[in-house]
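Appendix B: complex inputs.
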Amino acid sequence: MKIAVIGYSGNVNETPVKQLEEICEELGHKIAIKKHILINGGTDGIMELVSRSARNAGGEVIGIVAGLESGNKHLSFEFKTGMDSSMRSVLMMYNVDAIISVGGKAGTGLELFSAYLMGIPIVLLRGTGGWTDRIAGVLIEGKYLDERKLVEIKNSWNVDDAIELAENSKRR
Amino acid sequence: MKIAVIGYSGNVNETPVKQLEEICEELGHKIAIKKHILINGGTDGIMELVSRSARNAGGEVIGIVAGLESGNKHLSFEFKTGMDSSMRSVLMMYNVDAIISVGGKAGTGLELFSAYLMGIPIVLLRGTGGWTDRIAGVLIEGKYLDERKLVEIKNSWNVDDAIELAENSKRR
Amino acid sequence: MKIAVIGYSGNVNETPVKQLEEICEELGHKIAIKKHILINGGTDGIMELVSRSARNAGGEVIGIVAGLESGNKHLSFEFKTGMDSSMRSVLMMYNVDAIISVGGKAGTGLELFSAYLMGIPIVLLRGTGGWTDRIAGVLIEGKYLDERKLVEIKNSWNVDDAIELAENSKRR
Amino acid sequence: MKIAVIGYSGNVNETPVKQLEEICEELGHKIAIKKHILINGGTDGIMELVSRSARNAGGEVIGIVAGLESGNKHLSFEFKTGMDSSMRSVLMMYNVDAIISVGGKAGTGLELFSAYLMGIPIVLLRGTGGWTDRIAGVLIEGKYLDERKLVEIKNSWNVDDAIELAENSKRR
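Resulting structure:
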């Protein structure tokens, strides 16, 4: 499966990314050893941490980067989009089977809506803050981003559950 | 100014669009007589109602449509993007000075995040339901989509205030 | 009709644009007085000259500009694409009924292929140099860019003929 | 290096692709054993033949496909763009170090212009027909697509020379 991990960008040595390092290590490692392809935006923050551990575990990591700059050094393949971050995020969704969300600022919020609109299953890794936790509080019936119920958004409270929910989800 | 009105798509004779007809009529009319250019996605729902009244008042209406199909008949110029709705919404934001949000499903949610990320002022026309009201409940300090405070999101409770807030806002 | 004029970019006071000023003046003027909408890339060179004369004649001019910068001052509406010039050119073709080509460097060459692939009729204003004349020498059966014969490319030797051929052409 | 091979689409068992099978086999094989990453549009024709032989030789093949459909079965990674063929071709160029061109219809023509405009070195595998040979006849000084001389277009007459020229070329 192609599993995207979305979440906070930013310096990996600073709050709030720093606090999520252990979770990201575990997430990247387990995605890799289960032979899933990790997809992400290819730059810093959560993306960097998860990419690094996935690569260290021998996994494949595809970075779909905004603009024409290079992504981080933990990518097995980097795809430059020449687009701004938001448009790149939409493009990324064409290439993903499921999403795991970890914390996240407004860019992550946009990605949650973008994935939902394309019917891509979303797993929230709860307790990681940002829009991952914030969106959980305003879902319709605790599961949907609107009345059309395009695809289910699921809650997980640890990495194993997050990956299992992603694996068992079905793209619409 | 180029003011985008975003909100519910769908049949104009059915819930929830039908209930917002009067508000949309007033909104389109007043945007037009104040000589603003109305920008929207160019299809049905809120977009159709606002476009119709803006045109009836002699205003200019630009529809930025997804795909290659024609938009509704109330557009003074239609721009076909060949893209899916989400990517089209991001593209629309490059061409907007402020946004007024009326109700809205997940596509509207994506547009709110997309506008915020580009620093485009957002005015919520409260009481219209959907993501326009839902997002108001989860803003940081009641105004922002994340800690970066990229641009302020404002609440209005009637059409006059919405337009005035849009006019007085400043793109970042 | 929406008629795009493509051709040389560059300073309007320098070769080779300068030499085509009169032709561009006539072209913009006649497109405008025949109530066609002029579409172009919205920056300098041929685009600027044609836009200026179309606007002076009361015509509507839509500039579909690369990046997020403003286009020239002769546009009645400017659409920012945030994309590089090549991708912008492809996007422009979704919004055009026919094309008139005047001189042109490689960007114009790309636009000729892009239009052909979408089945948009192309009129070469011969004698204006660049790819407008160069492509004429390598057409298949003097009319097509490949064996599929997707749409006809026509030769004109003056502005009146160019506009008439564009008007009588049929998008595939 | 990331080397793109562009050229005829179409059924691999029919003219003109069929006649180029041996050349494509050699090209894909040699790109793979020299550890270059093969990039292409991921569908049929030249793309399919070159992908197949590169994969058989253990190479990596990235297909950058138009639309949302799957590409051919010889891709090690497939990137769906959701875009039409022309826009996809422009996007592909952001991810390429050099191009080898084999035959080709108008889509290949567009790719030649697109690569040139981005300063990507182009090697024509002469004698393969289509725009690969046709463009050679109208180059400025036998090397350039316009007076700006953005990047050199080189002629090769066999696969070994084509790959060597691509390897020794320098992206602008």
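The longest strand of chain D covers residues 2-7.
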